[in-house]
Design goal:
This protein has 298 residues and is of the alpha/beta class. The chain contains seven helices and ten strands. β3 and β4 form a beta hairpin. α1 packs across α5 and α2 packs across α5. The relative contact order is 0.15.
Length: 298
């Protein structure tokens, strides 16, 4: 597997600037999304952030028209009485929507992207989430809800989630795990971009999860290995997965993240069900991300 640090250094030079809409469910002022924005922009992309005004974790695919704020945005990032949608005066690419993640990313796609990009975004990314989104948790995750909504609207999408962390304001010193997860997420994004269009098949999204990261364990991007995985466990009647690592059954993302050795999971999902994609759809992702994929130890 290529060194993650080498990939991060080289990929921006290989890939042209890509128009990306960025969202989450933890809120527009949470530190993870702001640092991820910085990394994606530093990699040469044109990014617009469109995320909930407040923490909307666990709201799945809930959707409701945005309304005027009756209390401040999270971390007092905008005052009571602010309009239903708003932006940061110093950076108008930072936008809040006083509603759910699904509503927020749709606003980014339909309203903000034409303004900043002159048309729809080329890619949508959500996260990276505070806490993992594994298996059945994907059904209630707002981060996943945002990614699958983008895919339903025809925009290739990736949801990122990290095991370590808690709700933290964008103004706080950047914890090491935040930098690590941001670099890893940028690596996956840039690798997909470098693979060429179409980035993903229609109705497909990726679910990426990272294990715990601390100053002493899985502290650096170079410690991590990505593994292609399944969202849900297969039953006896489940069709075979794509063949990789000399097997036709992918490990579940929970198994990958729970394996000692800093393994991160990349699952291929269908937006209409939030479940696993077919072997043929998995094979497309295997070809596109193969350079950064590894296998679990035997």
């Amino acid at each position: 597997m290529y060194s993650l640090l080498l990939a991060l250094a080289v990929l921006p030079l290989l890939a042209q600037s890509t128009n990306i809409v960025l969202s989450n469910d933890d809120g527009w002022a949470e530190i993870n999304i702001r640092v991820f924005y910085d990394r994606l922009t530093r990699a040469g992309n044109s990014v617009v952030l469109s995320a909930p005004a407040d923490n909307k974790s666990g709201t799945g695919s809930s959707d409701s028209p945005a309304i005027k704020l009756t209390k401040p945005c999270e971390f007092n990032s905008c005052p009571t009485g602010s309009p239903a949608q708003g932006f940061n005066a110093s950076n108008p690419r930072f936008n809040y929507v006083n509603s759910y993640p699904v509503t927020s990313i749709r606003y980014g796609i339909q309203n903000l992207s034409p303004k900043f990009f002159g048309g729809p975004p080329e890619l949508a990314v959500a996260g990276f989430n505070v806490g993992a989104n594994l298996g059945s948790t994907t059904l209630i995750s707002g981060t996943v809800g945002a990614a699958t909504e983008a895919a339903k609207e025809g925009i290739p999408a990736i949801a990122f989630s990290g095991t370590t962390g808690s709700q933290t304001a964008w103004t706080a010193p950047v914890p090491r795990y935040v930098s690590t997860y941001a670099d890893l997420s940028t690596n996956v994004t840039q690798t997909l971009i470098a693979s060429g269009k179409p980035f993903l098949p229609s109705n497909i999204w990726l679910n990426v999860n990272y294990p715990a990261s601390s100053t002493t364990s899985c502290a650096s991007p170079r410690n991590f290995k990505f593994v292609l995985s399944r969202i849900n466990a297969a039953s006896s009647g489940t069709a075979a997965d794509v063949q990789t690592c000399e097997k036709t059954r992918l490990p579940t993302e929970s198994t990958v993240v729970g394996t000692s050795g800093c393994y991160a999971s990349i699952s291929v999902g269908r937006a209409d069900t939030k479940g696993d994609a077919t072997a043929a759809e998995q094979a497309v992702v295997l070809r596109k991300l193969g350079k950064i994929l590894s296998c679990l130890p035997s």
